[in-house]
């Protein structure tokens, strides 16, 4: 199925479904970011990889039980699944590991600022993979978001090379995962639940082996706070919300575009960044950094407004929607 057909099908979904799926993703992402930050930073849990394994295992258990009870339906496993779903498992595991690692290394505000580069990367990938073009107002909004991110990052008093490397890799994996998820949902017939289940099934075993080989699993098992009820509760909430977030991403991508999913992440970051000034205890305030945050958030709000509120009208050449082109080269539209 072509990108053009997928776009036409997406247009058939009601505005309410598009908005609710986007809101569901924003809320899920916000809650998971705060919970992960609590587990990895406040409690100093040593293994972000094992936290990811817990989230994958929860996804498998929930969907398996739901399939057996006939609450949801998706294709039974056969060898063709591996070819249908590739390269999503590689992108998902990269997204999980780098995301959790960067959450541990960076303060919440800087984490959310540098995550803005996901929008630019998603836009570029949609141009070259899904053959889409974008109105100039959306491009300018992205430019404002990136400018704010660069201003904020330039004055980061807690600069961490490893943390910045993880977050930028996470941006790449997130963008690629979002674009390919949209592509697979429209062309492979796996369905929302099949994409989730088989991604988790394929990546959990190699991730577990890698955790054991690196000693990461041993550190997690011997963690001293396993006797603390508060930590156990936060860990279990993180595992469950990891499943909820993955589902919300697939759902948002199904009803919207991959780029819209990235935009919703920016909306969520408006709340996360400013709350992060007070939560986590690792944000070092500076006016330059705060100014960059504000520019970044303003760009995100502009982007969101253009995407969700401005409706195209007849005779208006500035209509704010994503166009699909058959031009094999693909380029940004400035019409």
From TrEMBL:
<feature type="transmembrane region" description="Helical">
    <location>
        <begin position="226"/>
        <end position="247"/>
    </location>
</feature>
<dbReference type="GO" id="GO:0016020">
    <property type="term" value="C:membrane"/>
</dbReference>
<feature type="transmembrane region" description="Helical">
    <location>
        <begin position="77"/>
        <end position="93"/>
    </location>
</feature>
<feature type="domain" description="Sugar phosphate transporter">
    <location>
        <begin position="18"/>
        <end position="304"/>
    </location>
</feature>
<feature type="transmembrane region" description="Helical">
    <location>
        <begin position="45"/>
        <end position="65"/>
    </location>
</feature>
<dbReference type="Pfam" id="PF03151">
    <property type="entry name" value="TPT"/>
</dbReference>
<keyword id="KW-0472">Membrane</keyword>
<protein>
    <submittedName>
        <fullName>UDP-N-acetylglucosamine/UDP-glucose/GDP-mannose transporter-like</fullName>
    </submittedName>
</protein>
<keyword id="KW-0812">Transmembrane</keyword>
<dbReference type="InterPro" id="IPR050186">
    <property type="entry name" value="TPT_transporter"/>
</dbReference>
<feature type="transmembrane region" description="Helical">
    <location>
        <begin position="113"/>
        <end position="131"/>
    </location>
</feature>
<feature type="transmembrane region" description="Helical">
    <location>
        <begin position="20"/>
        <end position="39"/>
    </location>
</feature>
<feature type="transmembrane region" description="Helical">
    <location>
        <begin position="193"/>
        <end position="214"/>
    </location>
</feature>
<keyword id="KW-1133">Transmembrane helix</keyword>
<feature type="transmembrane region" description="Helical">
    <location>
        <begin position="259"/>
        <end position="279"/>
    </location>
</feature>
<feature type="transmembrane region" description="Helical">
    <location>
        <begin position="138"/>
        <end position="158"/>
    </location>
</feature>
<feature type="transmembrane region" description="Helical">
    <location>
        <begin position="285"/>
        <end position="306"/>
    </location>
</feature>
<dbReference type="InterPro" id="IPR004853">
    <property type="entry name" value="Sugar_P_trans_dom"/>
</dbReference>
<feature type="transmembrane region" description="Helical">
    <location>
        <begin position="164"/>
        <end position="181"/>
    </location>
</feature>
């Amino acid at each position: 199925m072509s990108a053009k057909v997928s776009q036409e099908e997406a247009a058939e979904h009601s505005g309410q479904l598009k908005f609710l799926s986007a809101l569901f993703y924003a809320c899920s992402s916000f809650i998971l970011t705060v919970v992960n930050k609590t587990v990895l930073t406040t409690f100093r849990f040593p293994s972000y990889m094992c936290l990811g394994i817990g989230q994958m295992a929860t996804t498998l258990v929930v969907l398996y039980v739901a399939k057996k009870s006939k609450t949801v339906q998706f294709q039974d496993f056969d060898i063709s699944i591996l070819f249908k779903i590739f390269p999503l498992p590689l992108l998902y595991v990269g997204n999980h590991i780098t995301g959790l690692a960067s959450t541990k290394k960076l303060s919440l505000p800087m984490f959310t600022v540098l995550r803005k580069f996901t929008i630019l990367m998603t836009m570029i990938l949609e141009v070259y993979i899904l053959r889409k073009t974008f109105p100039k107002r959306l491009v300018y909004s992205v430019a404002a978001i990136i400018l704010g991110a660069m201003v904020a990052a330039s004055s980061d008093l807690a600069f961490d090379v490893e943390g910045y490397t993880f977050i930028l890799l996470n941006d790449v994996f997130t963008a690629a995962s979002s674009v390919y998820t949209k592509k697979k949902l429209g062309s492979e017939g796996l369905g929302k639940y099949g994409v989730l289940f088989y991604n988790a099934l394929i990546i959990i075993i190699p991730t577990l082996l890698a955790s054991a080989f690196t000693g990461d699993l041993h550190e997690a098992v011997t963690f001293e706070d396993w006797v603390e009820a508060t930590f156990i509760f936060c860990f279990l909430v993180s595992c469950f919300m990891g499943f909820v977030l993955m589902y919300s991403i697939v759902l948002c991508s199904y009803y919207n575009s991959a780029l819209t999913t990235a935009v919703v992440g920016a909306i969520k970051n408006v709340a996360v960044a400013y709350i992060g000034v007070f939560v986590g205890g690792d944000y070092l305030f500076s006016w330059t950094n705060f100014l960059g945050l504000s520019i970044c958030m303003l760009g995100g709000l502009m982007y969101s407004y253009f995407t969700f509120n401005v409706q195209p009208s007849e005779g208006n050449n500035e209509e704010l929607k994503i166009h699909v082109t058959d031009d094999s080269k693909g380029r940004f539209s400035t019409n």
